[in-house]
Amino acid sequence: MRGTLFVLGMLVGIAYTTAAARAEEDHDVVLSLSAERPDYYIGEPLRLTLTVKNESDHDVYGFFRLWPPDERVTLLYRRAGEAFRALGRVTPDSSSARLLNEVDVVSLPAKVSPQQEKRSEMQVVLDPATRQVVLGAAGDYEFMVECRLWSSAGTDTTAGVVRSDVAYVHVASPTNEDREALSEFLAKDLARLVETWPFPPPLEDGSIANAAAYLDRHPRGPYSERVREALLRGLHHRVLRREASERDKALYERMRAGREDSLR
Questions:
Q1: 79: nearest Cα among 129, 32, 133
Q2: Which of 126-130, 153-157, 167-171, 235-239 is most confident?
Q3: Which of 23, 180, 205, 251 has a CB 3.0–4.6 Å from the CB of 27, allowing a cystine?
Q4: Following DSSP, what letter does each residue of 185-245 receive, concatenated?
Q5: Are 128 and 210 contained in the same domain?
Q6: Do 104 and 215 fall into the same domain?
Q7: Is there a contact between 112 and 54 (Cβ–Cβ < 8 Å)?
Q8: Last residue in a domain, options 156, 172, 188
Q9: Mind giving me the DSSP string for 121-186?
Q10: Both 117 and 20 in a single domain?
Q11: In which domain, by residue range, is 195 found?
Q12: 158/219 same-domain check
């Protein structure tokens, strides 16, 4: 029987702020969106962090979660010179949707206390609506987020929309060697594994074999670390749920040992 997960925002405290946008109608809610790094390669997984700060003297309720996806939170992006477009919603047949279907996700507005800061994170490779790479060409990109507020009392009434500041990243073409790695990363559908972060990806025998073979051929590079991270996280999840085969367990132990050796 599936359990019920009440997602209250997947938010944790954070101790820094950046230039940010304030909600209209004087809500005193400030949203700041930032990328993990300023520079990326074409097709590289983009990790974004959304920080919300309540600068009022009363509790604020709203939908500030980047992941799992929520229809009341919209990520907008564009390449410089183009119009902003909304990142598509997760489709029912995607691995992300299968992951969310393991539990019943009830999305509730998150409460942010006065002067409190919270954050939510996500990792993006493909636009779910088009299955096209978000960072699909060299150039400068801009990202921002729109979140719907709820009433200050937390009742079921809307209270406007707040928009974040703009996060900027520069995207460069990969080297010839990394182009081959990118082609395989996309062709083997490994993007689906890394996009469930920070959740463990739902693994199947084929996706485990593809990811392990990819890492054997491309142990280093701009795409490899995210694949390694996702595979290790997914295998750990299978081991904890007692769903791992002996082959899975052996691969998990090898990867853990390799990660520990690299940190020494």
A1: 133
A2: 167-171
A3: 23
A4: HHHTTTHHHHTTTTSPP---HHHHHHHHHHHHH-SSSTTHHHHHHHHHHHHHHHHHTT---
A5: no
A6: no
A7: yes
A8: 172
A9: EEEESEETTTTEETT-SSEEEEEEEEEEEE-TT--S-EEEEEE---EEEEEEPPPHHHHHHHHHHH
A10: yes
A11: 176-263
A12: no
Q: Are 114 and 218 contained in the same domain?
A: no
Residue-wise pLDDT for 9-64, tens only, equals 333 333 333 334 444 445 689 999 999 999 999 999 999 999 999 999 989 899 99
Q: What is the CATH number of the domain that holds 13?
A: 2.60.40.10
The backbone torsions φ and ψ at residue 235, rounded to the nearest 5 degrees and listed phi first, read: -65, -40
| Residue of higher predicted confidence among 157 and 7 | 157
Spatial separation of the C-alpha atoms in residues 67 and 73, rounded to whole Å? 9
**What amino acid occupies position 84?**
F
How does residue 259 score in pLDDT terms, banded at 50, 70 and 90? confident
Both tokens of 126, joined, read 């493909």
Length in residues, the chain: 264
Place of tokens 């097709």: 43
The answer on pLDDT for 122 being more than 90 is yes
In this prediction, residue 140 has a pLDDT band, given cuts at 50, 70 and 90, of very high
Q: Which domain-ending residue is among 140, 172, 204? A: 172
Verify that 24 and 79 share a domain, yes or no: yes
Sequence letter at residue 21: A
Q: Quick one: 135 and 82 in the same domain?
A: yes
Distant-in-sequence, close-in-space partners of 255: CB < 8 Å, separation ≥ 6: 228, 231, 232, 235
Identify which of 218, 177, 192, 164 has the alpha carbon closest to the alpha carbon of residue 41: 177
Residues 101 and 29 in one domain: yes
